[in-house]
Specification:
This protein has helices at residues 2-30, 108-121, and strands at 43-50, 56-66, 69-74, 79-83, 86-90, 98-100, 124-134, 137-147, 159-168, 173-184, 194-201. By secondary structure, it is of the alpha+beta class.
Length: 211
């Protein structure tokens, strides 16, 4: 009887470890699907940043065909159109566009893919909360903390955050992305600032250079 009781206790003790391992595997898999920017359909998004007290700090509108073809508008400021290595600026998401100097790397895709690989390798604190209700919609909730490795080509630059994502189970796409605990090589102590980004997907979106 004692041996049976000890066996049960050992199994119960091992259960959280097994669940954490399964969750980590599930979160890692997301970086090859929902969280891979090159597999994400074209979308529009609204990203809002908040200070440590929760007050709105800044906001951005984004139009993304692929990670290499994007338009981003700073609320109250200018927009930037980026296609591969070329950059233009303008007053709205529709321009008119003026050519601007570009400091982007020659192989942006390789740099983005390397960053994604580093984030997968540096994952910690995974949480898999299953379906939750958000604004009347059932979404899959996941949380994790991660960061990139120092980049020797950019003076050792790295960045990280603690993220919570909400995925539509019908499409497998992220509908809401929350971040906090921002860290970087120049500010390694996590901050209580936060951001919220919401997504709307549209396969008809195209981002082209100005005519």
């Amino acid at each position: 009887m004692l041996r049976l009781t000890l066996t049960i206790l050992l199994l119960w003790a091992a259960l959280p470890v097994a669940q954490a391992s399964e969750c980590m595997a599930e979160v890692r898999a997301l970086f090859s699907s929902s969280l891979d920017p090159f597999q994400r359909p074209a979308y529009r998004s609204q990203r809002t940043h908040f200070d440590e007290g929760g007050a709105k700090k800044s906001a951005f509108q984004n139009v993304v065909q692929t990670p290499l073809r994007t338009i981003s508008l700073v609320e109250g400021g200018a927009a930037a159109l980026v296609v591969d290595q070329d950059t233009w600026t303008g007053p709205t998401l529709d321009g008119p566009w003026t050519s601007a100097p570009s400091t982007l790397p020659d192989n942006r895709r390789a740099a983005m893919e390397m960053s994604l690989e580093q984030q997968v390798a540096n994952l910690s604190e995974p949480a898999c909360d299953g379906e939750v209700e958000v604004d009347g919609q059932q979404l899959l909730k996941y949380s994790f903390t991660t960061k990139t490795d120092p980049n020797p080509d950019q003076g050792g630059l790295w960045f990280g955050s603690s993220d919570t994502i909400y995925i539509d189970p019908a499409t497998g796409q992220v509908t809401r992305w929350e971040r906090t605990g921002f860290t970087s090589s120049f500010a390694p102590t996590p901050t209580a600032e936060s951001s919220v980004e919401t997504f709307e997907y549209d396969d008809a979106i195209t981002v082209d250079p100005p005519a």
